[in-house]
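Action item from last meeting closed. Structure (212 res):
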């Protein structure tokens, strides 16, 4: 949100993310206040038909990362809720794909010892020290870090919140890379509707649920 230059206040949502079927919606419901817009998001990983959230302790983080390294490829799914001051809400999800390096258990344990992965979905942060675990990714990088900026930009504008910065410019500047999918991501953002789910590595703008 800072990259978009949007004024905000972070409000922790006291919910059990592991028990909620749609954690972002649960967070939005927990903090919603009449007359105030809100943004809520929750990121999970999907591997072999299972969803992974945040690890409960260092041992769980090691297990998660060993599992991801063994499967090599997984999906990162961020669910986003944007609600206007008038109470109009749109909920959507964006997916990216990540391929992991074949790292050793010792490398995983060294990374977990830094405590960096303990509050991260899937127990790693691609934008931090966990980047060495990642071989490559497809789709929106910002989505992997927790908020698909191009999609969120258009959802915010619909909610009457006008970001002062452009997402494609600020995202690429912040992460120091050339994003190959920002035009497709913005086309998807313009087509947002409640319940949409986008594969950010794809040109598909229908918002139909897909993992291909």
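Sequence:
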């Amino acid at each position: 949100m800072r990259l978009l230059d949007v004024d905000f206040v972070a409000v922790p949502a006291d919910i059990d993310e592991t028990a909620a079927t749609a954690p972002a919606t649960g967070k939005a419901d927990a903090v919603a206040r009449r007359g105030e817009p809100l943004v809520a998001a929750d990121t999970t990983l999907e591997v072999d038909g299972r969803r992974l959230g945040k690890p409960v302790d260092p041992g769980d983080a090691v297990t998660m990362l060993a599992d991801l390294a063994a499967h090599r490829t997984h999906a990162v799914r961020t669910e986003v809720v944007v609600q206007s001051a008038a109470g109009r809400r749109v909920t959507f999800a964006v997916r990216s794909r990540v391929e992991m390096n074949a790292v050793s258990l010792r490398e995983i344990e060294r990374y977990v010892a830094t405590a960096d992965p303990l509050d991260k979905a899937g127990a790693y942060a691609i934008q931090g020290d966990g980047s060495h675990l990642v071989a490559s990714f497809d789709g929106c990088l910002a989505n992997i870090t927790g908020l698909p900026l191009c999609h969120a930009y258009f959802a915010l504008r619909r909610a009457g919140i006008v970001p002062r910065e452009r997402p494609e410019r600020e995202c690429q500047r912040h992460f120091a890379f050339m994003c190959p999918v920002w035009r497709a991501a913005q086309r998807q953002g313009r087509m947002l509707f409640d319940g949409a789910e986008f594969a950010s590595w794809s040109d598909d703008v229908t918002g139909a649920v897909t993992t291909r």
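Note appended to the action item: Residues 68 and 100 are 7 Å apart (CA to CA).
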